[in-house]
Amino acid sequence: MGKLGLIAGGGSLPVEIAEHCRRSGRPLFVIRLKGFAGPELEPYAGAEVGIAELGKCFKALKRAGCEAVCLAGAVSRPDFAALIPDIRGLAVLPAAIAAARKGDDALLRLMLGEFEKEGFAIEGATDVVDDLSLASGPLGRVAASEESMADVRRALDVARAIGRLDVGQGAVVCRGLVLAVEAQEGTDAMLSRVADLPEALRGRPGACAGVLAKAPKPIQETRVDLPTIGPATVHAAARAGLAGIVGEAGGLVILNREAVIRLADELGLFILGVEPANP
Hints:
With about 280 residues, this protein is an alpha/beta fold. It has helices at about 15-25, 55-65, 85-100, 105-115, 125-130, 145-165, 185-195, 230-240, 255-265; strands spanning about 5-10, 30-35, 45-50, 70, 120, 135-140, 170-175, 175-180, 210-215, 230, 245-250, 255, 270-275.
């Protein structure tokens, strides 16, 4: 296990990766992205770097002896006009702006390519922590009903369809009706919209119905941007009256796994992994 450079955005995923490296004894250096990385990462050896300071980032990683990098955590799309790049970042900026016009995946691929040009291997979060992703079958004690399985299939079809357009990764279906699709607002905001719908369209406490599906985009750079759920997602799904959550096996990251399982069991929600669709 060579030394890992963790390029850390917001949320709990970078923290889980850092803690795993500490427990497993893997050498780690953390690049904390300004404005995104949380204070939980400050105790780890590393440096704070602006999102457009590529030169500073590469130099810090090389001085630390990193052989591979893992990009993890939430980073919102930047306002390119407001960025303050260093010389290396300035050289990439025109290509980054052009890639961003094509979609998030094109921008991510460009950034990964810059790290590879500098000689770093790229590792996905699930490469670093091998039990992060959802396996096939139920996660927890709650099983999906036959009625819910019809929504599972429909919701996954919709999530995959919007993924092909590079729109988002998630969709909510209830009794065959598409209630919401995810775009730039994120999963929690989408579920909040579903919770505001009339109860005639969605489930409710004591009569839960409907499914949240999350699936990787077919063009997606899975080393960086796999769909993710955590305890907050389970809470939001329950508030929206949903019966469960489904994802592709190996294609959905589970944050705080034990807490997710415990919470889903308490709230009576199923979490299900299904095999990915054939190409």
